[in-house]
Amino acid sequence: MSEKETMKQKQNNTSGKPKRKPGGHGKGQSAPKEQRTVRVRTPRELALDTLVKVAETGAYSNLQLNRALQDAQLQRADAGLVTELVYGTIQRQLTLDHWLSKFAAKGLRKLEPWVHQLLRMSAYQLLYLDRIPAHAAVNEAVTIAKRRGHQGISGMVNGILRSIDRNRAELTIDTISDKNPAVQISVRHSYPEWLVARWIKAYGVETTEAICASGNEAPHASVRINPLRETREEALQLLTEQGSEAEVSKLAPAGIVVRRGGNLADTEGFRKGLWTMQDESSMLVAEVVAPKAGMQVLDCCAAPGGKTTHMAELMGGKGKVYANDLHPHKRQLIVDQAIRLGLQNIEAITEDAGNLGVRFAPASLDAVLLDAPCSGFGVIRRKPEIKWTKTAGDVAEIAGIQRKLLKAAAELVKPGGTLVYSTCTIESTENEDQVAAFLQEHPEFQLDAEWPEEVLQPLREKGIIDSSFKGQAQLLPHHFGSDGFFIARLSKRQ
Ligand SMILES: C[S@@+](CC[C@H](N)C(=O)[O-])C[C@H]1O[C@@H](n2cnc3c(N)ncnc32)[C@H](O)[C@@H]1O
Protein backbone atom coordinates (compact mmCIF):
# COMPACT_ATOMS: atom_id res chain seq x y z
CA MET A 1 0.00 0.00 0.00
CA SER A 2 1.39 3.44 -0.86
CA GLU A 3 1.45 6.30 1.64
CA LYS A 4 -1.49 7.85 -0.14
CA GLU A 5 -3.56 4.69 0.03
CA THR A 6 -2.76 4.31 3.70
CA MET A 7 -3.92 7.83 4.26
CA LYS A 8 -7.17 7.14 2.43
CA GLN A 9 -7.90 4.36 4.87
CA LYS A 10 -7.70 6.83 7.68
CA GLN A 11 -9.90 9.41 6.03
CA ASN A 12 -12.67 8.94 8.57
CA ASN A 13 -10.49 9.43 11.56
CA THR A 14 -8.19 12.27 10.74
CA SER A 15 -8.66 14.00 14.08
CA GLY A 16 -6.93 11.00 15.56
CA LYS A 17 -9.53 10.76 18.32
CA PRO A 18 -9.76 7.11 19.19
CA LYS A 19 -13.06 5.44 18.48
CA ARG A 20 -13.57 3.21 21.44
CA LYS A 21 -14.76 -0.31 20.98
CA PRO A 22 -18.37 -0.84 22.02
CA GLY A 23 -18.40 -0.81 25.80
CA GLY A 24 -15.24 1.30 25.96
CA HIS A 25 -15.02 4.59 27.78
CA GLY A 26 -15.01 7.45 25.32
CA LYS A 27 -14.49 11.08 26.24
CA GLY A 28 -17.42 12.43 28.20
CA GLN A 29 -18.63 9.03 29.26
CA SER A 30 -18.23 8.08 32.88
CA ALA A 31 -16.28 4.94 33.64
CA PRO A 32 -17.38 2.48 36.28
CA LYS A 33 -16.02 3.55 39.66
CA GLU A 34 -13.37 0.87 40.05
CA GLN A 35 -11.91 1.68 36.60
CA ARG A 36 -11.88 5.46 36.83
CA THR A 37 -8.14 5.73 37.28
CA VAL A 38 -7.37 3.63 34.16
CA ARG A 39 -7.20 5.89 31.14
CA VAL A 40 -7.17 4.24 27.73
CA ARG A 41 -4.26 5.49 25.63
CA THR A 42 -5.09 7.37 22.44
CA PRO A 43 -3.70 6.02 19.13
CA ARG A 44 -1.00 8.73 19.20
CA GLU A 45 0.04 7.78 22.72
CA LEU A 46 0.18 4.14 21.69
CA ALA A 47 2.30 5.06 18.67
CA LEU A 48 4.56 7.21 20.85
CA ASP A 49 5.10 4.44 23.41
CA THR A 50 5.91 2.00 20.60
CA LEU A 51 8.42 4.42 19.08
CA VAL A 52 10.14 4.97 22.42
CA LYS A 53 10.32 1.24 23.05
CA VAL A 54 11.77 0.46 19.62
CA ALA A 55 14.37 3.22 20.02
CA GLU A 56 15.32 2.29 23.57
CA THR A 57 15.31 -1.48 23.47
CA GLY A 58 16.21 -2.15 19.85
CA ALA A 59 12.98 -4.16 19.47
CA TYR A 60 11.83 -4.85 15.89
CA SER A 61 9.18 -2.27 14.98
CA ASN A 62 6.84 -4.84 13.40
CA LEU A 63 6.89 -7.13 16.44
CA GLN A 64 6.56 -4.27 18.92
CA LEU A 65 3.73 -2.73 16.92
CA ASN A 66 1.83 -6.02 16.60
CA ARG A 67 2.10 -6.55 20.33
CA ALA A 68 0.86 -3.03 21.08
CA LEU A 69 -2.05 -3.34 18.64
CA GLN A 70 -3.06 -6.73 20.01
CA ASP A 71 -3.07 -5.43 23.58
CA ALA A 72 -5.01 -2.27 22.71
CA GLN A 73 -7.70 -3.92 20.53
CA LEU A 74 -8.26 -0.73 18.55
CA GLN A 75 -10.75 -0.26 15.78
CA ARG A 76 -9.38 -0.68 12.27
CA ALA A 77 -9.02 3.02 11.44
CA ASP A 78 -7.21 3.74 14.70
CA ALA A 79 -4.94 0.73 14.26
CA GLY A 80 -4.19 2.10 10.76
CA LEU A 81 -3.25 5.47 12.25
CA VAL A 82 -0.92 3.90 14.83
CA THR A 83 0.73 1.76 12.13
CA GLU A 84 1.23 4.75 9.85
CA LEU A 85 2.68 6.88 12.64
CA VAL A 86 5.10 4.22 13.85
CA TYR A 87 6.45 3.16 10.45
CA GLY A 88 6.37 6.66 8.97
CA THR A 89 8.18 8.26 11.90
CA ILE A 90 10.93 5.63 11.95
CA GLN A 91 11.28 5.76 8.17
CA ARG A 92 11.56 9.55 7.98
CA GLN A 93 13.54 10.00 11.18
CA LEU A 94 16.62 11.60 9.64
CA THR A 95 14.65 14.04 7.48
CA LEU A 96 12.38 14.94 10.41
CA ASP A 97 15.38 15.61 12.68
CA HIS A 98 16.95 17.70 9.94
CA TRP A 99 13.99 20.08 9.90
CA LEU A 100 13.20 19.91 13.62
CA SER A 101 16.76 20.90 14.50
CA LYS A 102 16.25 24.21 12.68
CA PHE A 103 13.62 25.23 15.23
CA ALA A 104 14.81 23.52 18.42
CA ALA A 105 16.78 26.30 20.09
CA LYS A 106 18.76 23.93 22.32
CA GLY A 107 19.11 21.21 19.70
CA LEU A 108 17.56 17.74 19.77
CA ARG A 109 20.27 15.81 21.56
CA LYS A 110 19.40 16.82 25.11
CA LEU A 111 15.69 16.13 24.75
CA GLU A 112 14.17 13.33 26.79
CA PRO A 113 13.62 10.36 24.46
CA TRP A 114 9.82 10.58 24.63
CA VAL A 115 9.86 14.31 23.82
CA HIS A 116 12.15 13.71 20.85
CA GLN A 117 9.90 10.92 19.55
CA LEU A 118 6.79 13.05 20.10
CA LEU A 119 8.31 15.86 18.03
CA ARG A 120 9.29 13.45 15.26
CA MET A 121 5.88 11.78 15.21
CA SER A 122 4.06 15.12 15.12
CA ALA A 123 6.36 16.64 12.49
CA TYR A 124 5.75 13.50 10.42
CA GLN A 125 2.02 14.24 10.47
CA LEU A 126 2.60 17.87 9.54
CA LEU A 127 4.99 17.18 6.69
CA TYR A 128 3.83 13.86 5.23
CA LEU A 129 0.15 13.27 6.03
CA ASP A 130 -1.99 15.71 4.06
CA ARG A 131 -5.22 14.46 5.53
CA ILE A 132 -4.39 15.23 9.13
CA PRO A 133 -5.13 18.91 9.76
CA ALA A 134 -2.10 20.72 11.20
CA HIS A 135 -4.06 21.99 14.22
CA ALA A 136 -5.07 18.39 15.12
CA ALA A 137 -1.47 17.18 14.95
CA VAL A 138 -0.17 20.09 17.05
CA ASN A 139 -2.99 20.04 19.62
CA GLU A 140 -2.70 16.31 20.19
CA ALA A 141 1.07 16.66 20.67
CA VAL A 142 0.61 19.48 23.17
CA THR A 143 -2.00 17.47 25.10
CA ILE A 144 0.38 14.50 25.35
CA ALA A 145 3.26 16.78 26.38
CA LYS A 146 1.09 18.35 29.13
CA ARG A 147 0.04 14.94 30.40
CA ARG A 148 3.54 13.53 30.50
CA GLY A 149 5.73 16.52 31.13
CA HIS A 150 5.39 20.02 32.48
CA GLN A 151 4.35 23.42 31.18
CA GLY A 152 7.84 24.13 29.80
CA ILE A 153 7.86 20.99 27.65
CA SER A 154 4.38 21.50 26.23
CA GLY A 155 5.25 25.12 25.41
CA MET A 156 8.41 24.05 23.61
CA VAL A 157 6.58 21.30 21.68
CA ASN A 158 3.91 23.79 20.68
CA GLY A 159 6.48 26.36 19.55
CA ILE A 160 8.59 23.97 17.47
CA LEU A 161 5.63 22.33 15.75
CA ARG A 162 3.97 25.66 14.94
CA SER A 163 7.25 26.89 13.45
CA ILE A 164 7.46 23.77 11.28
CA ASP A 165 3.90 24.33 10.12
CA ARG A 166 4.45 28.05 9.37
CA ASN A 167 7.69 27.45 7.49
CA ARG A 168 6.74 24.26 5.68
CA ALA A 169 7.08 25.85 2.22
CA GLU A 170 10.79 26.42 2.86
CA LEU A 171 11.51 22.97 4.20
CA THR A 172 12.53 21.56 0.86
CA ILE A 173 15.60 19.76 -0.29
CA ASP A 174 16.56 22.75 -2.51
CA THR A 175 17.47 24.67 0.61
CA ILE A 176 20.20 22.18 1.56
CA SER A 177 23.49 23.84 0.74
CA ASP A 178 25.56 20.64 0.48
CA LYS A 179 25.11 19.40 -3.11
CA ASN A 180 26.92 16.10 -2.53
CA PRO A 181 24.45 13.48 -3.90
CA ALA A 182 24.94 11.25 -0.83
CA VAL A 183 23.90 14.12 1.46
CA GLN A 184 20.99 15.10 -0.78
CA ILE A 185 19.62 11.54 -0.99
CA SER A 186 20.26 10.97 2.70
CA VAL A 187 18.17 13.98 3.74
CA ARG A 188 15.53 13.65 1.01
CA HIS A 189 14.73 9.99 1.69
CA SER A 190 15.98 9.67 5.26
CA TYR A 191 18.84 7.17 5.09
CA PRO A 192 22.18 7.29 6.87
CA GLU A 193 24.77 8.99 4.71
CA TRP A 194 27.31 6.14 5.01
CA LEU A 195 24.79 3.70 3.57
CA VAL A 196 23.78 5.99 0.72
CA ALA A 197 27.44 6.59 -0.14
CA ARG A 198 28.01 2.83 -0.18
CA TRP A 199 25.06 2.21 -2.50
CA ILE A 200 26.08 5.06 -4.80
CA LYS A 201 29.44 3.34 -5.19
CA ALA A 202 27.77 0.02 -5.98
CA TYR A 203 24.73 1.11 -8.03
CA GLY A 204 25.20 4.76 -9.08
CA VAL A 205 23.21 7.84 -8.01
CA GLU A 206 20.00 7.20 -9.95
CA THR A 207 19.52 3.61 -8.82
CA THR A 208 20.41 4.50 -5.24
CA GLU A 209 17.74 7.17 -5.22
CA ALA A 210 15.21 4.64 -6.55
CA ILE A 211 16.23 2.08 -3.90
CA CYS A 212 15.86 4.64 -1.12
CA ALA A 213 12.50 5.96 -2.34
CA SER A 214 11.15 2.45 -2.68
CA GLY A 215 12.28 1.58 0.85
CA ASN A 216 9.86 4.21 2.16
CA GLU A 217 6.84 2.70 0.40
CA ALA A 218 4.50 0.47 2.37
CA PRO A 219 4.90 -3.12 1.16
CA HIS A 220 1.98 -4.82 -0.54
CA ALA A 221 0.74 -8.18 0.66
CA SER A 222 1.28 -11.33 -1.37
CA VAL A 223 0.49 -14.99 -0.92
CA ARG A 224 2.05 -18.14 -2.34
CA ILE A 225 -0.48 -20.76 -3.26
CA ASN A 226 -0.13 -24.34 -2.09
CA PRO A 227 -0.25 -26.32 -5.34
CA LEU A 228 -1.07 -29.49 -3.40
CA ARG A 229 -4.38 -27.94 -2.36
CA GLU A 230 -5.49 -25.71 -5.25
CA THR A 231 -4.50 -23.94 -8.46
CA ARG A 232 -3.54 -20.28 -8.62
CA GLU A 233 -6.78 -19.56 -10.52
CA GLU A 234 -8.86 -21.13 -7.75
CA ALA A 235 -7.05 -19.12 -5.09
CA LEU A 236 -7.51 -15.94 -7.13
CA GLN A 237 -11.23 -16.58 -7.36
CA LEU A 238 -11.53 -17.30 -3.65
CA LEU A 239 -9.62 -14.17 -2.65
CA THR A 240 -11.72 -12.07 -5.02
CA GLU A 241 -14.95 -13.53 -3.62
CA GLN A 242 -13.74 -12.54 -0.16
CA GLY A 243 -13.57 -8.94 -1.32
CA SER A 244 -9.83 -8.66 -1.91
CA GLU A 245 -8.27 -7.17 -5.00
CA ALA A 246 -6.13 -10.08 -6.09
CA GLU A 247 -3.91 -10.39 -9.14
CA VAL A 248 -1.32 -12.81 -10.41
CA SER A 249 2.24 -11.89 -9.40
CA LYS A 250 4.34 -10.49 -12.24
CA LEU A 251 7.40 -12.01 -10.60
CA ALA A 252 6.71 -15.26 -8.79
CA PRO A 253 5.14 -18.29 -10.51
CA ALA A 254 3.13 -19.26 -7.40
CA GLY A 255 2.41 -15.72 -6.21
CA ILE A 256 -0.72 -13.63 -5.93
CA VAL A 257 -0.58 -9.95 -5.00
CA VAL A 258 -3.42 -9.06 -2.64
CA ARG A 259 -4.73 -5.59 -1.93
CA ARG A 260 -7.49 -4.77 0.54
CA GLY A 261 -7.11 -8.28 1.88
CA GLY A 262 -7.19 -7.34 5.57
CA ASN A 263 -5.40 -9.75 7.85
CA LEU A 264 -4.70 -12.67 5.51
CA ALA A 265 -3.65 -14.89 8.41
CA ASP A 266 -7.20 -14.59 9.69
CA THR A 267 -8.85 -16.17 6.66
CA GLU A 268 -10.36 -19.56 5.97
CA GLY A 269 -7.95 -20.04 3.07
CA PHE A 270 -4.93 -19.57 5.33
CA ARG A 271 -6.27 -21.87 8.04
CA LYS A 272 -7.03 -24.56 5.45
CA GLY A 273 -3.48 -24.35 4.12
CA LEU A 274 -4.45 -22.97 0.70
CA TRP A 275 -1.79 -20.28 0.87
CA THR A 276 1.16 -18.82 2.76
CA MET A 277 1.94 -15.14 3.15
CA GLN A 278 5.32 -14.49 1.58
CA ASP A 279 7.09 -11.71 -0.26
CA GLU A 280 7.27 -12.20 -4.03
CA SER A 281 11.09 -12.05 -4.20
CA SER A 282 11.35 -14.57 -1.39
CA MET A 283 9.10 -16.89 -3.43
CA LEU A 284 11.76 -17.17 -6.13
CA VAL A 285 14.33 -18.88 -3.93
CA ALA A 286 12.69 -22.33 -3.75
CA GLU A 287 11.90 -22.08 -7.49
CA VAL A 288 15.61 -21.60 -8.13
CA VAL A 289 16.49 -24.60 -5.94
CA ALA A 290 13.93 -26.46 -8.10
CA PRO A 291 13.89 -29.62 -5.94
CA LYS A 292 12.31 -32.76 -7.46
CA ALA A 293 9.96 -35.26 -5.82
CA GLY A 294 11.92 -37.85 -3.82
CA MET A 295 15.03 -35.71 -3.30
CA GLN A 296 16.88 -35.24 0.00
CA VAL A 297 17.03 -31.49 0.59
CA LEU A 298 18.45 -29.40 3.43
CA ASP A 299 17.34 -25.88 4.37
CA CYS A 300 20.16 -24.70 6.67
CA CYS A 301 18.52 -21.57 8.10
CA ALA A 302 14.85 -22.39 7.79
CA ALA A 303 12.70 -20.65 10.41
CA PRO A 304 9.91 -19.64 10.17
CA GLY A 305 9.74 -22.06 7.26
CA GLY A 306 8.67 -19.98 4.26
CA LYS A 307 11.14 -21.51 1.84
CA THR A 308 11.13 -24.96 3.48
CA THR A 309 7.39 -25.33 2.94
CA HIS A 310 7.68 -23.98 -0.60
CA MET A 311 10.34 -26.58 -1.46
CA ALA A 312 8.23 -29.33 0.14
CA GLU A 313 5.28 -28.23 -2.01
CA LEU A 314 7.37 -28.19 -5.18
CA MET A 315 8.42 -31.78 -4.33
CA GLY A 316 4.76 -32.79 -4.27
CA GLY A 317 5.13 -33.82 -0.63
CA LYS A 318 7.58 -36.60 -1.65
CA GLY A 319 11.19 -37.00 -0.47
CA LYS A 320 12.47 -35.00 2.49
CA VAL A 321 13.22 -31.42 3.41
CA TYR A 322 15.33 -31.13 6.56
CA ALA A 323 14.45 -27.74 8.01
CA ASN A 324 17.20 -26.57 10.32
CA ASP A 325 17.46 -23.48 12.48
CA LEU A 326 19.84 -22.45 15.23
CA HIS A 327 17.14 -21.46 17.69
CA PRO A 328 15.19 -24.25 19.39
CA HIS A 329 12.17 -22.00 19.99
CA LYS A 330 11.77 -21.49 16.23
CA ARG A 331 11.39 -25.20 15.51
CA GLN A 332 7.70 -25.14 16.35
CA LEU A 333 7.09 -22.31 13.85
CA ILE A 334 8.24 -24.63 11.07
CA VAL A 335 6.28 -27.62 12.39
CA ASP A 336 3.08 -25.52 12.62
CA GLN A 337 3.39 -24.38 9.00
CA ALA A 338 4.06 -27.92 7.77
CA ILE A 339 0.92 -29.17 9.57
CA ARG A 340 -1.21 -26.28 8.33
CA LEU A 341 -0.15 -26.91 4.73
CA GLY A 342 -0.56 -30.70 5.03
CA LEU A 343 3.13 -31.35 4.23
CA GLN A 344 4.50 -34.60 5.56
CA ASN A 345 7.93 -34.45 3.96
CA ILE A 346 9.45 -31.91 6.37
CA GLU A 347 11.64 -32.73 9.35
CA ALA A 348 12.49 -29.79 11.59
CA ILE A 349 15.85 -29.91 13.35
CA THR A 350 17.87 -27.60 15.56
CA GLU A 351 21.59 -27.09 14.99
CA ASP A 352 24.15 -24.45 14.20
CA ALA A 353 24.30 -24.48 10.40
CA GLY A 354 28.08 -24.38 10.67
CA ASN A 355 27.94 -27.70 12.46
CA LEU A 356 25.48 -29.72 10.36
CA GLY A 357 28.25 -32.19 9.55
CA VAL A 358 27.36 -33.88 12.85
CA ARG A 359 23.94 -34.79 11.43
CA PHE A 360 24.59 -35.37 7.74
CA ALA A 361 27.29 -37.36 5.98
CA PRO A 362 29.55 -35.33 3.68
CA ALA A 363 28.28 -35.08 0.09
CA SER A 364 24.94 -36.73 0.96
CA LEU A 365 22.28 -34.23 -0.09
CA ASP A 366 20.74 -33.54 -3.48
CA ALA A 367 20.18 -29.86 -2.76
CA VAL A 368 21.16 -27.51 0.03
CA LEU A 369 19.69 -24.04 0.56
CA LEU A 370 21.51 -21.46 2.65
CA ASP A 371 19.09 -18.56 3.12
CA ALA A 372 21.63 -16.83 5.26
CA PRO A 373 21.25 -14.42 8.15
CA CYS A 374 22.12 -11.02 6.65
CA SER A 375 22.06 -7.25 7.16
CA GLY A 376 18.47 -7.15 5.85
CA PHE A 377 18.79 -3.96 3.77
CA GLY A 378 16.37 -5.45 1.24
CA VAL A 379 13.52 -5.42 3.75
CA ILE A 380 13.77 -1.85 5.01
CA ARG A 381 10.13 -1.28 4.04
CA ARG A 382 9.09 -3.87 6.62
CA LYS A 383 11.69 -3.08 9.28
CA PRO A 384 12.66 0.57 8.81
CA GLU A 385 14.71 0.66 12.01
CA ILE A 386 17.34 -1.43 10.21
CA LYS A 387 18.53 1.84 8.66
CA TRP A 388 19.44 3.20 12.06
CA THR A 389 20.63 0.11 13.88
CA LYS A 390 22.92 -1.60 11.37
CA THR A 391 26.46 -0.38 10.84
CA ALA A 392 29.22 -1.00 8.29
CA GLY A 393 30.86 -3.10 11.01
CA ASP A 394 27.72 -5.28 11.21
CA VAL A 395 27.89 -5.90 7.47
CA ALA A 396 31.51 -7.05 7.74
CA GLU A 397 30.70 -9.22 10.74
CA ILE A 398 27.69 -10.93 9.18
CA ALA A 399 29.66 -11.50 5.96
CA GLY A 400 32.19 -13.44 8.04
CA ILE A 401 29.42 -15.64 9.46
CA GLN A 402 27.93 -16.20 6.00
CA ARG A 403 31.34 -17.28 4.69
CA LYS A 404 31.61 -19.98 7.38
CA LEU A 405 28.03 -21.18 6.88
CA LEU A 406 28.46 -21.35 3.11
CA LYS A 407 31.62 -23.43 3.45
CA ALA A 408 29.89 -25.84 5.85
CA ALA A 409 26.76 -26.10 3.65
CA ALA A 410 28.87 -26.85 0.57
CA GLU A 411 30.42 -29.92 2.15
CA LEU A 412 27.02 -31.61 2.41
CA VAL A 413 26.16 -31.31 -1.31
CA LYS A 414 26.40 -34.45 -3.48
CA PRO A 415 28.52 -34.37 -6.65
CA GLY A 416 26.12 -33.12 -9.31
CA GLY A 417 23.97 -31.59 -6.55
CA THR A 418 22.79 -28.02 -6.06
CA LEU A 419 23.71 -25.31 -3.57
CA VAL A 420 21.57 -22.18 -3.46
CA TYR A 421 22.74 -19.14 -1.51
CA SER A 422 20.27 -16.32 -0.83
CA THR A 423 19.99 -13.19 1.31
CA CYS A 424 17.43 -10.41 1.73
CA THR A 425 20.05 -7.72 1.38
CA ILE A 426 21.52 -5.63 -1.41
CA GLU A 427 25.10 -5.45 -0.08
CA SER A 428 27.64 -6.88 -2.52
CA THR A 429 29.93 -7.85 0.39
CA GLU A 430 27.26 -10.31 1.47
CA ASN A 431 26.21 -11.26 -2.05
CA GLU A 432 28.30 -11.21 -5.24
CA ASP A 433 31.59 -10.81 -3.36
CA GLN A 434 30.65 -13.66 -1.05
CA VAL A 435 29.93 -15.98 -3.98
CA ALA A 436 33.09 -14.92 -5.84
CA ALA A 437 35.25 -15.66 -2.77
CA PHE A 438 33.49 -19.00 -2.30
CA LEU A 439 34.11 -20.04 -5.90
CA GLN A 440 37.78 -19.16 -5.57
CA GLU A 441 38.12 -21.48 -2.61
CA HIS A 442 35.82 -24.20 -4.00
CA PRO A 443 36.74 -25.02 -7.58
CA GLU A 444 34.46 -28.07 -7.34
CA PHE A 445 31.50 -25.64 -7.58
CA GLN A 446 30.37 -23.45 -10.44
CA LEU A 447 27.60 -20.94 -10.97
CA ASP A 448 24.58 -22.59 -12.56
CA ALA A 449 22.35 -20.62 -14.93
CA GLU A 450 19.78 -23.43 -15.26
CA TRP A 451 16.99 -21.51 -13.57
CA PRO A 452 13.35 -22.22 -14.47
CA GLU A 453 12.35 -20.16 -17.50
CA GLU A 454 9.29 -18.72 -15.75
CA VAL A 455 11.63 -17.23 -13.11
CA LEU A 456 14.10 -15.89 -15.66
CA GLN A 457 11.58 -14.23 -17.94
CA PRO A 458 10.37 -11.42 -15.64
CA LEU A 459 13.97 -10.77 -14.52
CA ARG A 460 14.99 -10.42 -18.16
CA GLU A 461 12.07 -8.14 -18.95
CA LYS A 462 13.02 -5.81 -16.09
CA GLY A 463 16.65 -5.77 -17.20
CA ILE A 464 17.80 -7.40 -13.96
CA ILE A 465 19.64 -10.05 -15.96
CA ASP A 466 20.78 -10.13 -19.57
CA SER A 467 22.48 -12.53 -21.96
CA SER A 468 25.54 -12.59 -19.70
CA PHE A 469 23.51 -14.21 -16.88
CA LYS A 470 25.66 -16.80 -15.14
CA GLY A 471 23.42 -18.00 -12.31
CA GLN A 472 23.11 -15.18 -9.77
CA ALA A 473 20.74 -12.23 -9.60
CA GLN A 474 20.24 -9.19 -7.39
CA LEU A 475 16.66 -7.95 -7.13
CA LEU A 476 16.33 -4.39 -5.86
CA PRO A 477 13.22 -3.21 -4.02
CA HIS A 478 12.11 -0.82 -6.77
CA HIS A 479 12.23 -3.47 -9.54
CA PHE A 480 8.93 -5.12 -8.62
CA GLY A 481 8.04 -3.33 -5.38
CA SER A 482 9.09 -6.50 -3.57
CA ASP A 483 11.93 -7.20 -1.14
CA GLY A 484 15.53 -6.71 -2.22
CA PHE A 485 16.91 -10.24 -2.60
CA PHE A 486 20.04 -11.93 -3.83
CA ILE A 487 19.96 -15.49 -5.18
CA ALA A 488 22.85 -17.59 -6.51
CA ARG A 489 22.55 -21.14 -7.79
CA LEU A 490 25.72 -23.22 -7.72
CA SER A 491 26.25 -26.79 -8.82
CA LYS A 492 28.87 -29.24 -7.64
CA ARG A 493 30.85 -30.92 -10.37
CA GLN A 494 30.35 -34.71 -10.75
C1 LIG B 1 16.71 -15.13 6.71
S1 LIG B 1 16.10 -16.01 8.07
C2 LIG B 1 15.49 -17.46 7.31
C3 LIG B 1 14.14 -17.31 6.69
C4 LIG B 1 13.61 -18.64 6.20
N1 LIG B 1 14.52 -19.26 5.26
C5 LIG B 1 12.25 -18.51 5.55
O1 LIG B 1 12.17 -18.43 4.33
O2 LIG B 1 11.25 -18.49 6.27
C6 LIG B 1 17.57 -16.59 8.77
C7 LIG B 1 17.37 -17.63 9.85
O3 LIG B 1 18.67 -18.10 10.18
C8 LIG B 1 18.68 -18.50 11.52
N2 LIG B 1 20.10 -18.58 11.92
C9 LIG B 1 20.94 -17.59 12.23
N3 LIG B 1 22.18 -18.09 12.46
C10 LIG B 1 22.11 -19.42 12.26
C11 LIG B 1 23.03 -20.47 12.36
N4 LIG B 1 24.30 -20.26 12.69
N5 LIG B 1 22.59 -21.73 12.11
C12 LIG B 1 21.31 -21.97 11.78
N6 LIG B 1 20.39 -21.00 11.68
C13 LIG B 1 20.78 -19.74 11.92
C14 LIG B 1 17.86 -17.45 12.22
O4 LIG B 1 17.30 -17.96 13.40
C15 LIG B 1 16.78 -17.14 11.16
O5 LIG B 1 15.60 -17.84 11.46
Oligomer: single chain
Distance between the termini: 47 Å
How many structural domains does the protein architecture include? 4
- By CATH, the topology of the largest domain is Rossmann fold
List unreliable stretches of 5+ residues. Answer: 1-35
Q: Which CATH architecture of the largest domain?
A: 3-Layer(aba) Sandwich
- Give the CATH class of the largest domain: Alpha Beta
Determine the number of helices (DSSP H or I, runs of at least 4 residues).
Answer: 21
> Based on CA inertia axes, which overall geometry fits?
globular
Description:
- With 494 residues, the chain is an alpha/beta fold.
- It folds into four domains: 153 residues, N-utilizing Substance Protein B Homolog, Chain A (Orthogonal Bundle); 43 residues; 57 residues, Sun protein, domain 3 (Alpha-Beta Plaits); 211 residues, Vaccinia Virus protein VP39 (Rossmann fold), CATH 3.40.50.
- 46% of the residues lie in helices and 13% in strands.
- The protein contains 21 helices and twelve strands.
- The strands form two sheets. Strands 5, 6, 7, 8, 9, 10, 11 and 12 form an eight-stranded mixed β-sheet that branches.
- Strand 6, helix 16 and strand 7 form a beta-alpha-beta unit.
- Helix 5 crosses helix 6, helix 6 packs antiparallel against helix 7 and helix 6 runs parallel beside helix 8.
- The chain is globular.
- The relative contact order is 0.08.
- The N terminus is likely disordered.
- The structure holds S-adenosylmethionine.
- The site of S-adenosylmethionine has 17 residues, from helix 15 and strand 6.
- S-adenosylmethionine binds next to helix 15 and strand 6.
